[in-house]
Amino acid sequence: MARISSLxxxxxxxxVVSSTSITDIQGVAWRSPxxxxxxxxxxxxxxxxxxxGFYLAGDKSEDIRASNGILVxxxxxxVLKSVTVGxxxxxxxxxxxxxxxxxxxxxxxxxxxxxxxxxxLSSNNTVNPVILGKDRSPPTQYFSxxxxxxxxxxxxxxxxxxxxxxxxxxxxxxxxxxxxxxLESQLVTIPRPIATNFQNTYGEFWVYGDWxxxxxxxxxxxxxxxxxxxxxxxxxxxxxxxxPLDGTKNPKTAVxxxxxxxxxxxxxxxxxxxxxxxxxxxxxxxxxxxxxxSSIKSKPFAICSLTFGDYNVExxxxxxxxxxxxxxxxxxxLNTPDIMFIQEIQDNSGPTDDGVIDANVTLSTLVNSIAQIxxxxxxxxxxxxxxxxxxxxxxGNIRTAFLYRAEKLKLVSxxxxxxxxxxVEVKRTLxxxxxxxxxxxxxxxxxxWNSTRKPLVAHWRTKLGFDLxxxxxxxxxxxxxxxxxxxxRPPVNxxxxxxxxxxxxxxxxxxxxxxxxxxASIVLAGDFNEYIQTRSVYKPILSLLTxxxxxxxxxxxERYSYVYDQNxxxxxxxxxxxxxxxxxxQFEHVHVNSWAPTIGxxxxxxxxxxxxxxxx
Length: 616
Ligand SMILES: *[C@@H]1O[C@H](CO)[C@@H](O)[C@H](O)[C@H]1NC(C)=O
Ligand SMILES: *[C@@H]1O[C@H](CO)[C@@H](O)[C@H](O)[C@H]1NC(C)=O
Ligand SMILES: *[C@@H]1O[C@H](CO)[C@@H](O)[C@H](O)[C@H]1NC(C)=O
Ligand SMILES: *[C@@H]1O[C@H](CO)[C@@H](O)[C@H](O)[C@H]1NC(C)=O
Ligand SMILES: *[C@@H]1O[C@H](CO)[C@@H](O)[C@H](O)[C@H]1NC(C)=O
Ligand SMILES: *[C@@H]1O[C@H](CO)[C@@H](O)[C@H](O)[C@H]1NC(C)=O
Ligand SMILES: *[C@@H]1O[C@H](CO)[C@@H](O)[C@H](O)[C@H]1NC(C)=O
Ligand SMILES: *[C@@H]1O[C@H](CO)[C@@H](O)[C@H](O)[C@H]1NC(C)=O
Ligand SMILES: *[C@@H]1O[C@H](CO)[C@@H](O)[C@H](O)[C@H]1NC(C)=O
Description:
Layout: H1 2-19, H2 22-26, E1 38-50, E2 53-57, E3 69-73, H3 77-81, E4 88-98, E5 109-122, E6 130-131, E7 161-162, H4 163-166, H5 176-181, E8 187-190, E9 194-195, E10 205-208, E11 225-226, E12 232-233, E13 239-241, E14 258-259, E15 262-269, E16 272-277, E17 283-285, E18 305-316, H6 323-333, E19 339-345, H7 360-374, E20 379-381, E21 399-404, E22 409-411, E23 426-429, E24 432-435, E25 440-441, E26 456-462, E27 467-474, E28 488-489, H8 496-516, E29 522-527, H9 535-542, E30 546-547, H10 548-551, E31 562-564, E32 567-569, E33 572-576, H11 578-583, E34 586-589, E35 609-614
Helix pairs in contact: 6-7, 8-9
Bound molecules: 2-acetamido-2-deoxy-beta-D-glucopyranose (9 copies).
GO molecular function: catalytic activity
Protein name: DNase I-like protein
Keywords: Signal
């Protein structure tokens, strides 16, 4: 009798086991069909252990959408001590979809919590990672099937749906987030990883491995580009490497650092898919630290040719320790262009919030520093903002400014310098368009420019009487955006409404200038805080002006001025009027910062650029 009941018991439990595997729990969609349910006698091989639990691998499914990995969440030392990597175990627990309450824009992680009856059934089993690039490879263009719209992950409306709500069936062959989700909590190997960014303050860094990539630039980073179907490609084939599970420390990386193979578990945290390495990788090679100066040089006796540079100098104050390096970049890497478009010049007291708004000390300190290196003494012009009304570091009153070589060009006289809230306008004269203020700010009281820098417009004349109009912009920054791998699809691109209105406002001004003279030479440059692939923002201006990268034939993968998260990307742009395009241009991005050997060696988060145009 006793024998029979124990046999019955065995049969019942065996039924539970065969009906609930890890692949069943993971399922083929974003959220588990078993959420909230108690699971008995779940079996799996311990593949990795960390401070907050261990990872189990169950039998593989024929269906690659269903991950056979799962995290058994526990920070109890009794639990953690009860298993060793290579143990084949059985346990009871509860299926949970976890996301921190304070982070509603993250994805859920499927976990087993409150594990009990952890029984080691056998030990010293071989643990085989999935070799990425061989067993499975990530798709290279799209993040999510919910990123609908012509601009893909950069489309508006943003956050029109959420992954966790739609809970779609995974399509790991096509969508990067689905790919990583289909490997959730599995042990993977990334062969021959290459870093696409500096490490962040937590020692984490982005990589791709030995698999197909798109957007690869000459440095080894991956640039945001358009895919073959014209939809933006945000490089979902990359993954961030988190803190090693064994407590070792990751090495420092830069764009293009190559590393030893990384084996670790796929997880989702802090808004991104990660691989948590079993142990820290080592650096195999570092990219060349030499950045060559631009080949574009000012020609002292050229009649028609003018050189220009564009540089966001990141919160430059008179006492900034990075000021001499910025001066060195302008002198020795950009070759002291005839005119410089500069962004983020702070007032004379820097970030001290004391009512000071003048920036003449900041600008003359920069000019003197450049003169000491190059013998070129720039003149400068800018317009003060109203105290604390233009955004940026509080008290810093950042603004855009022009530096110019008076032996090459001068501000056209006869118009006063505009004040903070004077709107620059185009006046038609018999001798061509003139500005009512020179320099002046575009539509400074328009709500579009609330809390941000107003564009600075200047009208120049060369020695031989050829005119040039320049517009220096610094649009609202992307602060407040959600992650490229977050729940909100397309990701929240903050504040895209503001940047769209700002570009439209600049386009209205440019249009009035071209209306007055369709052959006006115009250069619009600066920090737009937006990729050109976000076409909805640029639409009004690109019907008037041309992207100089395009006109100069810069390869799309080499168009970047910034590295952020997984991508090399272009926030800084130069747009030119039709006649300037027609006369021919030269242009170069000078990667003095994106190619820095360490993040600490960078003096600005932006790279400068330099170009040559002709005004006749
Ligand atoms: C639990 O599963 C293991 C492995 O399949 C099996 O050996 C064991 O008998 C099961 N236990 C019960 C109580 O069903
Ligand atoms: C998600 O989809 C799976 C598979 O269709 C389903 O079993 C599960 O209940 C869904 N979960 C939610 C929260 O919609
Ligand atoms: C504990 O696990 C063992 C091994 O899988 C199994 O035989 C036993 O029935 C489980 N006990 C409970 C109470 O789940
Ligand atoms: C596992 O292997 C190690 C070394 O190979 C050995 O010392 C240990 O006794 C083995 N453990 C079991 C449970 O077989
Ligand atoms: C972007 O998403 C935010 C947050 O859901 C929303 O407030 C905003 O209106 C959206 N903007 C656009 C242009 O889609
Ligand atoms: C996206 O929209 C949802 C639903 O309106 C909202 O709950 C969520 O906070 C939004 N996400 C972001 C990042 O703004
Ligand atoms: C800055 O401007 C103030 C007020 O016009 C002037 O007194 C001062 O000399 C200027 N300083 C420099 C370095 O140009
Ligand atoms: C700057 O001018 C001085 C004096 O004319 C000269 O000695 C020096 O070589 C020049 N430096 C550069 C970088 O042109
Ligand atoms: C301007 O921006 C500030 C700060 O972002 C905000 O508090 C204020 O409401 C905005 N004003 C208008 C008119 O949009």
